[in-house]
Amino acid sequence: MAKLWFKFQRCFRYFRRKPVRFFTLLALYLTAGSLIFLHSGFVGQPAVPQSQASPAAGSPAEGAELPFLDDLHLSRGFRDTGEASSISRRYGPSFKSKETSERAKLGDYGGAWSRALKGRVVREKEEKEEERAKYIGCYLDDTQSRALRGVSFFDYKKMTVFRCQDNCAERGYLYAGLEFGAECYCGHKIQAANVSETECDMDCKGERGSVCGGVNRLSVYRLQLAQESARRYGSAVFRGCFRRPNNLSLALPVTAAMPNMSVDKCVDLCTEKEYPLAALAGTACHCGFPTTRFPLHDREDEQLCAQKCSAEEFESCGTPSYFIVYQTQVQDNRCMDRRFLPAKSKKLIALASFPGAGNTWARHLIELATGFYTGSYYFDGSLYNKGFKGERDHWRSGRTICIKTHESGQKEIEAFDAAILLIRNPYKALMAEFNRKYGGHIGFAAHAHWKGKEWPEFVRNYAPWWATHTLDWLKFGKTVLVVHFEDLKQDLFTQLGRMVSLLGVVVREDRLLCVESQKDGNFKRSGLRKLEYDPYTSEMRRTINAYIRMVDTALRSRNLTGVPDAYSPR
Question: 59-69: b or e for each residue (b if 16 or more CB lie within 10 Å)?
């Protein structure tokens, strides 16, 4: 024992004379221990997708009373307690995945198991991508003559292959093409030559390792999945049966006789001529734009158009008096020009809404209708990258037609001279904002977020804000135009006309009709990943219904239309 103590004293005196060596050895020891600990953690538990995370219990307490709305101040400084979520809470030691239990049965084979598991995950991912879309090659593209001539959108920060495919599938296109790492083009036909795969050599901006075309080169996919939100014939959207317009040559300027008429032939002709409408009239095909002469607002009974196509047994091709109309995938460019106001505006007009109530979509519609950029009380770089150029301007610059805001305090509201107040069903708005917070503007929250603590906390904090937001704007706003999101969707032409009128801009009806055909834009969340269950508990519903009744009463007390009947359950 004395000998051991003597050796210890000698070591202590040695390191006392040379402290640098002591601290170096100590650092090496701690580093080695940390590496061993991390290694054991990774080997002990394979990576788990968020969609399989164990749901955590959490819901508002039964019998909870409604908050006192007068005491709530949930505006720009609102604190979201549900936003901070830790990985340890979702993937803690108590979680056991399917792979973990399989591994326990078979034994721990270290690297061999990891390689096999990784290979299986990669194969599953490839199989899912095969189901969604099939890669068909690299194609030449030209700015003067596009290979895919449907809608297009750019994102120089977050473009991915899936996002491009999803946007094109949402609109019924057969093909999706990516170019220059950040550009997405959709179309129903490839109108260019195939080139060598080596010419598509640029990574996607939002997905390193995935190819997104090259310089004037498109990586093209054929889409296997299409949305069923509208009746379609291939890539064309069915608009309905309509009476023949009075002045046919002016309403639909291109006409071609087709003895062997089919929907395909007429749609292809109008697409080739670059018209967004294809009207089938028995053995004649007409092409044109929606105009005041042919606005597509008064649909007729489809039985009036029920004459079978001569070249198709199961499709109707209309008659000389009643036309079957399809919308092609040609983009109507009559309302696509946008710019800043030529002179500084003397009035600040707010486009006010609770988050998730469709503010971005409303901005898209207003910009198309007026031709002027909209601004924002905030700055969102992702929206700027998607074409909202007014996003970067200060909200008081006076260069934009209106200013997006989610504020609900008296001081913030009184800073504006007038406002368009957009109100949406809280059940829909809360889910939309929750998806945005955890999945981006057109993404989705993960299954773990819905089943974990985040969703109940979010509803508890945001549901009262939905009510106070409307009540504050009704109370403190100087001139307030109330627009219900549901009414805007149902009757876009009329409601958008009301909004434009408040903005003081005179807009031709033809331009509003153009907006109708481009109404979705690139900011609509895909319907492919809707929740398969109701996330609202009975207690949440009781609370939200009370807020709905409160807002409905406030609207009616000001001689305004109450909330739509669609705000159910009431």
Answer: ebeeeeeebee
| CA-derived radius of gyration, the chain | 30
Q: Listing from the earlier edge strand, what are the strands of the sheet with 133-140?
A: 152-154, 183-187, 175-179, 217-223, 133-140, 194-195
SS (H, E, C) 387-448: CCHHHHCCCCCCCCCCEEECCCCHHHHHCCCEEEEEECCHHHHHHHHHHHHHHCCCCCCCHH
Residue 33: its pLDDT value, please? 65
pTM of the entire predicted model = 0.60
Tell me whether strands 236-243 and 322-327 are parallel, antiparallel or unpaired: antiparallel
Give me the pLDDT at residue 39, please. Answer: 47
Residue 277: closest CA among 296, 262, 259, 304: 296
Distance CA 212, CA 155 (A): 12
Token couple for 481 = 């135009």
Residues pairing with 490 in the sheet: none
Residue 522 and residue 226: Cα distance in Å, rounded?
16
- In total, the chain counts a number of residues equal to 570
Low-confidence ranges of the chain (pLDDT < 50): 38-130, 226-229, 527-528, 570
Other Cβ atoms less than 10 A from the Cβ of 194: the count is: 12
Distances (CA, A) of 161 to 99, 158, 208: 28, 10, 11
Secondary structure (DSSP) of 77-125: T---TTS---HHHHS-TT---HHHHHHHHH---THHHHHHHHHHHHHHH
In angstroms, the first-to-last Cα distance of the chain is 83
**Beta strands 232-233 and 236-243: pairing type?**
antiparallel
CB count in 10 Å sphere of residue 283: 17
Sequence-separated (6 or more) residues with CB below 8 Å from residue 148 = 173, 175, 176, 177, 185, 186, 187, 189, 190, 191, 218, 220
pLDDT of residue 444: 81
Q: Which residue has the tokens 């993404």?
A: 443
- Contact present, 394 and 327 (Cβ < 8 Å): no
The CA distances from residue 94 to 45, 101, 236, in Å, are 11, 12, 51
Q: Cβ(515)–Cβ(496) under 8 Å?
A: yes
426-447: pLDDT as tens digits: 999 999 899 888 887 667 888 8
What pLDDT does residue 397 have? 94
